[in-house]
């Protein structure tokens, strides 16, 4: 019963084996003729096998034999069928007019031309590998993607995978169409096989990884991501994929824990600031923000602590400080903000330092509506005088503006600023006092 | 009906009429009353060629959007699905057909594929067991849709991705077919020029198609002198930059879809009480004022609007001078036109205000500064502070990607270290799954490592004079006004082709991707054109993979030059901008 592989290939590619086509169920004459021919050819070919043996499975695992049974009918649409041929349903017939000029002797190029015009014609007659490839080449030379795809579907069904891949490897245009087509119909398995065959390892890896987008369940998604680790990504991407997995793994732990804490209602931070959304599948920086918001003081040992995240994912200082600042400012935890920028040198002196520049600190604080006293403190730390003056003016840090003008001995600017402060305010008084002070040697 | 299509050098109403005829013929095939079920994406493009009235004349009584489940009730004989050939739409159609109430009156189903029947889709319908339910399954080859007197688009959103990422040439095939239709209506185009791999393919397809049609000689006197086919990947730079023309900015900020823009209603006088809906405006040359200002640099729009305002209010003041009955009568006869002008002016003043709010913002200025630095070749080889800030502040990912790609293109690829840095920042901030998008951008050549350690951009920039320091936004003398300094590469290629010819820039053409070529389509002697002295040539320029409004503006500028010598009609696979472009390249779940 079992054929050798060589036989199988020959079986599918041999031009001796003539198939039949019933394109019109009403045309009894052609039906008869065809079926007779088919039966005869079968007899020639499969001498001692019984009928059931025709219902066989090709090397790609798809049942392919049923269409060779006498009595089952074919239409163009069947010709495209990806599944074993079904019994012919009468309502699936095409409008009769389309059959009028039907002929069985079209060359591959005639066939392709007809397909291109959207007319009916069967591809099943092309049995030999040579004919099939000629069909493909005709289609490719027409550049009509619709027809190329139709021929590819036919080849995909009637050729074993290895031959299909081998032949397409030397036909790049058709190959690209097949890849596009497989992506479109979501035949991930064959697509991956193809990439493997072509040794296109990075595409193979990315294509596999892409599937995670369709997995909703976090546990399953995590497990799937695990299977991506070690796939042949570029060195850079490998690290990112590993991080992606680790991140989701963390998020699942944090989410379970925090959901529990929140519903228990015992933890102040969750009571005061109920979570707006789950942390699952959020980007790394968002996760860090979350952890700076809800888990800032935790020891490094816990999965949810910011420091732990920073270390695990090698988050650069700048990124870390920015995120922590935004989170703590949102909570109006000015003390934490202060600590973020305070460094002690070896003599024990404290110094303010911001890897992101204090102008950025000021912007972020302002965005989180920090009070003027706080803003002022950081505006003062901005080194560049122009930037400092601009920020101070923008955020109405009057004292900083006034002091800076004084230091610059810029009388004109101070005078101009006077109009921007409230009448009779302490600031106005301060400006007036300066302007009338005899001790300052104004530059203008 | 669509008079503005016939204002240009080539009467595009001829094309519009041809596609309308085809539509009527199809509708008449399905005799009796009908309902159309629309693939929503198609309603926009169809709106440009047919109003509801045309459909009504052909017994279309109801219209629905294609949705799952059951079809809405409609007492009609025919149900016609107007759809793009897409698998997911077939599933919905099948659902509709299968849930059809068997007890109700029998209705005939038909399906019209736009622009192309698809064997793959029909197969899907068959698998779902409904293929036989359709009496007519036809295609409507709406390949090129006339948008304006000088503008045609296929509105195929996936074309760039298919051509340059997937290597699927189907949209090129449609482009070639569209060009064959144009030639059938406007005569054979005697000369074809092209640059790029896809351009080469389309030219090949055209030549082949022509050979197959040899039976019928085209006896129409040619309207077009040249065809220029340009690959989008020859000029990846231009769409990434922010367009600075009026129309370009409307598109950048609000998006123009099928010549309509949806604008926030606040600045417009409400039509009725509580009218909080977005204001939808049609934008094309049918509106006189819009035709005048759309291609100007935005900085030149304000003064035109205020001049117009003065003219219109002066015109209204005229009523005081109208003393005699004759004068009053004349004034009144002008009123409708004046009122239309006033309405148009009010609308565009509002739009200009909306845009100005954006363009005067600090962030817009910063972004523009960075773009202009990149395009003029400053600091393209290191990590840019502004981009870093944008990522840190989580600005929209598309904005970030546009900038990073721009930097990459202006540096012929980024240094590996710089690229890795950006990649890492993007993935950590926006999510690791964007690895897939970054890979697509790399494959399309938009974001890639520099190979060979050589930056070709300066050579290209200098030879093609892409950066002009002295740009006049008010009264431009060069196409660089559309980006306030940067002259779009694609349009520069067109300009140089027309004068002095591409031979002068062979070196740069070799650096740019893909072959450049020239083909002639011989004409019978009777159809050969003898150009009158001073008569301009007409060039059809086809952008394969999309074109921006700023590029269109630059080409219109060239058409209007007194001694330009060439007028352009523009065709494309899609009207697009940098954001819609990048978005089409992003990976989404299946």
From TrEMBL, chain A:
Q: Where is this region: Disordered?
A: 44-100
Keywords on record? Cytoplasmic vesicle, Endosome
Q: Which domain of life is it from?
A: Eukaryota
Tell me the InterPro entries matching this sequence: Spe-39 (IPR040057), Vps16_C (IPR006925)
| Location(s) in or outside the cell | Cytoplasmic vesicle; Early endosome; Late endosome
Q: What is its main location?
A: cytoplasm
tRNA processing as a keyword of this entry, yes or no, is: no
Question: Which stretches does UniProt call biased (Polar residues)?
Answer: 69-80
Could you state one GO cellular component term attached to this entry?
A: late endosome
One BP term from GO? intracellular protein transport
Has UniProt tagged this entry with the keyword Transport? no
Q: Where is the Vps16 C-terminal domain?
A: 128-228
Q: What is this protein called?
A: Spermatogenesis-defective protein 39 homolog
TrEMBL record, chain B:
Role summary: Plays a role in vesicle-mediated protein trafficking to lysosomal compartments including the endocytic membrane transport and autophagic pathways. Believed to act as a core component of the putative HOPS and CORVET endosomal tethering complexes which are proposed to be involved in the Rab5-to-Rab7 endosome conversion probably implicating MON1A/B, and via binding SNAREs and SNARE complexes to mediate tethering and docking events during SNARE-mediated membrane fusion.
* GO CC annotation, single: perinuclear region of cytoplasm
Q: What is this protein called?
A: Vacuolar protein sorting-associated protein 33A
Q: List all membrane-crossing ranges.
A: none
**Highest taxon of the lineage:** Eukaryota
GO process terms (BP): autophagosome maturation; endosome to lysosome transport; lysosome localization; melanosome localization; platelet formation; protein transport; regulation of developmental pigmentation; regulation of lysosomal lumen pH
What InterPro entries does UniProt report for this protein, alphabetically?
Sec-1-like_dom1, Sec1-like, Sec1-like_dom2, Sec1-like_sf, VPS33_dom3b
Broad class of the protein's primary localization: cytoplasm
Q: Which PANTHER family match?
A: VESICLE PROTEIN SORTING-ASSOCIATED
Question: What gene makes this protein?
Answer: VPS33A
Q: How does it sit in the membrane?
A: Peripheral membrane protein
């Amino acid at each position: 019963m079992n054929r050798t592989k060589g036989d199988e290939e020959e079986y599918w590619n041999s031009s001796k084996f003539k198939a039949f086509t019933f394109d019109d169920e009403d045309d009894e004459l052609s039906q008869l003729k065809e079926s007779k021919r088919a039966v005869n050819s079968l007899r020639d070919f499969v001498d001692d096998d019984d009928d059931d043996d025709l219902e066989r499975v090709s090397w790609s695992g798809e049942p392919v034999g049923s269409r060779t049974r006498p009595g089952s009918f074919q239409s163009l649409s069947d010709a495209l069928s990806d599944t074993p041929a079904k019994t012919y349903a009468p309502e699936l017939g095409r409008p009769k007019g389309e059959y009028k000029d039907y002929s069985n002797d079209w060359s591959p190029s005639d066939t392709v031309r007809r397909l291109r015009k959207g007319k009916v014609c069967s591809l099943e007659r092309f049995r030999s590998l040579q004919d099939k490839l000629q069909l493909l080449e005709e289609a490719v030379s027409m550049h009509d993607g619709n027809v190329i795809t139709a021929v590819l579907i036919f080849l995909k069904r009637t050729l074993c995978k290895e031959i299909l891949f081998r032949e397409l490897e030397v036909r790049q245009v058709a190959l690209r169409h097949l890849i596009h087509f497989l992506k479109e119909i979501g035949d991930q398995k064959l697509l991956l096989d193809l990439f493997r065959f072509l040794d296109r390892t990075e595409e193979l890896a990315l294509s596999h990884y892409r599937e995670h987008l369709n997995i909703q369940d976090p546990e399953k998604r995590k497990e799937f991501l695990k299977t991506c680790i070690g796939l042949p990504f570029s060195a850079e991407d490998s690290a990112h994929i590993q991080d992606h997995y680790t991140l989701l793994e963390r998020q699942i732990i944090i989410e379970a824990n925090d959901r529990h804490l929140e519903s228990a209602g015992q933890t102040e931070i969750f009571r005061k600031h109920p979570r707006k959304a789950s942390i699952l599948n959020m980007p790394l920086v968002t996760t860090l923000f979350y952890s700076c918001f809800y888990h800032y003081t935790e020891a490094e040992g816990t999965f949810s602590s910011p420091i732990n995240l920073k270390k695990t994912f090698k988050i650069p200082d700048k990124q870390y400080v920015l995120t922590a600042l935004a989170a703590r400012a949102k909570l109006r935890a000015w003390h934490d903000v202060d600590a973020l920028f305070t460094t002690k040198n070896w003599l024990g002196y404290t110094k303010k330092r911001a890897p992101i520049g204090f102008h950025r600190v000021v912007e972020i604080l302002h965005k989180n509506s920090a009070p003027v006293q706080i803003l002022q403190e950081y505006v003062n730390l901005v080194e560049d005088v122009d930037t400092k003056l601009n920020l101070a003016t923008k955020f109405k840090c009057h004292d900083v503006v006034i002091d800076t003008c004084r230091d610059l001995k810029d009388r004109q600017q101070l005078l101009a600023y006077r109009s921007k402060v409230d009448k009779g305010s302490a600031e106005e008084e301060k400006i007036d006092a300066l302007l009338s002070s005899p001790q300052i040697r104004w530059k203008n | 009906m669509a008079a503005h299509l016939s204002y240009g050098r080539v009467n595009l109403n001829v094309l519009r009429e041809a596609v309308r005829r085809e539509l009527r013929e199809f509708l008449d095939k399905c005799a009796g009353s009908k309902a159309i079920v629309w693939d929503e994406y198609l309603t926009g493009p169809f709106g440009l060629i047919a109003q509801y009235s045309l459909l009504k004349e052909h017994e279309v009584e109801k219209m629905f959007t294609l949705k799952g489940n059951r079809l809405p009730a409609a007492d009609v004989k025919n149900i016609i699905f107007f759809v793009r050939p897409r698998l997911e739409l077939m599933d919905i159609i099948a659902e509709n057909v299968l849930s059809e109430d068997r007890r109700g009156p029998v209705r005939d189903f038909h399906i019209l594929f736009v622009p192309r029947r698809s064997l793959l889709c029909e197969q899907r319908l068959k698998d779902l067991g409904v293929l036989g339910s359709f009496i007519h399954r036809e295609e409507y080859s709406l390949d090129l849709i006339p948008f304006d007197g000088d503008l045609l688009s296929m509105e195929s959103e996936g074309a760039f991705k298919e051509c340059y990422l997937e290597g699927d040439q189907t949209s090129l095939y449609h482009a070639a077919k569209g060009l064959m239709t144009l030639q059938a209506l406007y005569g054979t185009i005697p000369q074809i020029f092209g640059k790029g791999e896809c351009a080469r393919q389309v030219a090949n397809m055209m030549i082949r198609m022509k050979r197959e049609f040899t039976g019928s000689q085209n006896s129409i006197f040619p309207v077009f002198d040249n065809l220029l086919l340009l690959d989008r990947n020859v000029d990846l730079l231009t769409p990434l930059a922010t367009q600075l023309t009026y129309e370009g900015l409307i598109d950048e900020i609000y998006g123009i879809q099928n010549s309509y823009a949806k604008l926030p209603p606040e600045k417009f006088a409400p039509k009725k009480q509580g009218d909080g809906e977005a204001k939808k405006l049609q934008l094309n040359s049918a509106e006189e004022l819009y035709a005048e200002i759309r291609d100007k640099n935005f900085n030149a729009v304000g003064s035109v609007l205020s001049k117009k305002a003065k003219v219109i209010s002066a015109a209204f003041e005229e009523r005081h001078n109208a003393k005699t009955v004759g004068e009053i009568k004349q004034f009144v006869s002008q009123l409708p036109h004046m009122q239309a002008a006033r309405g148009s002016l009010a609308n565009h003043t509002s739009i200009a205000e909306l845009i100005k709010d954006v363009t005067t913002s600090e962030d817009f200025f910063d972004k523009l500064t960075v773009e202009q630095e990149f395009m003029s070749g400053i600091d393209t080889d290191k990590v840019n502070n502004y981009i870093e800030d944008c990522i840190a502040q989580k600005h929209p990912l598309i904005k970030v990607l546009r900038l990073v790609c721009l930097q990459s293109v202006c540096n012929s690829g980024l240094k590996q270290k710089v690229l890795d840095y950006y990649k890492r920042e993007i993935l950590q901030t926006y999510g690791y799954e964007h690895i897939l998008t970054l890979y697509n951008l790399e494959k399309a050549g938009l974001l890639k490592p520099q190979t060979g350690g050589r930056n070709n951009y300066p050579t290209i920039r200098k030879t093609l004079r892409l950066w002009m320091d002295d740009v006049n936004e008010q009264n431009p003398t060069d196409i660089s006004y559309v980006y306030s300094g940067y002259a779009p590469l694609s349009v520069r290629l067109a300009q140089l082709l027309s004068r002095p010819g591409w031979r002068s820039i062979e070196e740069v053409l070799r650096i740019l991707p893909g072959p450049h070529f020239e083909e002639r389509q011989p004409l019978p002697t009777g159809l050969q054109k003898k150009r009158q002295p001073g008569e301009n040539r007409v060039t059809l320029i086809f952008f394969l993979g999309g074109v921006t409004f700023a590029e269109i503006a630059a080409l219109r500028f060239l058409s209007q030059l007194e001694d330009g010598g060439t007028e352009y009609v523009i065709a494309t696979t899609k009207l697009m901008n940098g954001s819609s472009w990048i978005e089409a390249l992003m990976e989404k779940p299946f």
